[in-house]
Write a structure and sequence with these properties.
This protein is an alpha/beta fold. The chain is about 25% helix and about 30% strand. About 45% of the residues are buried.
Amino acid sequence: MDRVNGLRSFLDKAHSVYHAAALIKEELERAGYCRLQEGNDWQIKAGGKYYLMRNDSSLVAFRLPEGAPKGFLISASHTDRPCFKVKENAVLKGQYTRLAVERYGGMLIAPWLDRPLSVAGRVLVETEDGIQSRLVDIDRDLLLMPNVAIHMNRNANDGYKWNPATDTIPLLGDKETADFWQAVETLAGGRILGHDLYLYVRQPSSVWGMNGEFISAQALDDLQCVWGCAQGFLQAKETGNIPVLCVFDNEEVGSSSYQGAGSDLLESAVSRICAVLGLDKSRQLAGSFLVSADNAHAQHPNHPEYADPANAPVMNGGVVVKFNANQRYTTDGLSAAIFRKICEKANVPVQTYCNRADIAGGSTLGNVSLSQVAVPSVDIGLAQLAMHSCYETAGVKDVGYLVDAMAAYYGAELTTAKDGSFSVK
Ligand code: ZN
C-alpha cells in the first residue's frame, strides 16, 4: 500500500506537466542528484548523480558508475496529458464570465463536464533579474463546464458531437466577477509576460473496488509510468551501466518540440556524457537499451470486443509488453526476450498487448526516442481503462509491479555478447 500512497501523493500534486516535472526534480534532489545546465561546462565524474531539464517540463537524470561504464540503460515516459489549455485573452465577458480554452491532445471530452476544475501551469513574470518562470496552481474549485439540460438537447444520449468552441468553455463567475489575471499575478508575484496554463480536475485520486483493487486519478497515462520508472531508477542496485531516466513533455501532440522525445535532449545528454568521460559513443550505444513506458489499454469489462482475442491485458495482471508489426511500438523478439528475462528475475508477471488487427490503436514515444538514440528498445506500460479521460482507472497491484520491474531493469547487468545477442544477469 505504501507504493500506491506514494503514487497518489504524486498524482494529487502533479496538476500540470510543469508540476509533474518539478516533483520528479525534487525527488532527485532529495536523493543527491545535481542539476546540470545545458549552457554550462559539465563537470561530471565517476560515481556522480546528475539531471538536466528543458522548458521546466522535460527531464533527463543519470548516474555514473565508479568504474568504466558499460552501456546506457534508458527509460522514457511522458509528463503531459490531454487537457485544455488557457488561451490568450481568455476572459470572456457577457451575462456570465467564462475562460476561453482550447484542446491539448486527443481527449475524451464528456468526462470534463459537470465537475469542478482548476488551473495550474507556469507563468513567465517580470522581475528585477529578468523574466522568470514560476509555477502556479490556483488549487481551489474555480471553474466548471456545465452540460446543456436533456430538455434542451434531447439527442444528448444518442451520440452527441461536442463542439470545443462552444461546449467546453468553462464558467468562471458571474457578470461582475473578480479579475482572473489579477489573481494569477498575485499568486505568481509579478507582472505576467507569458503563460502556459492548463485546466485540471479537482477530484483527487481514489482507491476503490470490493478489495481496493483499482486506482482512479487524472493523468495515470502517463504519470503512473513516470513515477514507477523514477522509483525503479532510484531504487536499483548499482551495476557497471549508466542508468538514464527520461521524462518528456508533448507526447500527446507528437513529441516534436524543443523539449519532446523528438528533440535532441536525450541525444545531446548521451553525446556529452561520452565526450566528457572519453567514451566512444557508438561502442557505448551498442551495449545500450531503452524501455519506453506508456500505459496500455486494459480489456474493457463491457466491451471485450475491442481487444485482440489473445493479447488483451487486464488490470493487476502485471507489466504489459506492447507489440506492433509496423513498429508503432518498438518491441521485437530480442527486446521482448530481454525484458521478459528481467521481469522473471524480479517475479513480475508480464502480459502482452497487440491492437485488434482492424483497429489502428495509438502510438507512443519509443520510436520517436529511437530517432535520436538508436538502441534495442521495448515498449511497455500498465493496463488501464478510459485512456485520455480526465479521470482514468488502473490496477493497484500493477503500481508495485512496474517499480519492481524498473528496479530490476536498471539494476541488471546487461551486456552484449555479440551483435544482436545480450546476456542478462
Ligand atoms: Zn501515454
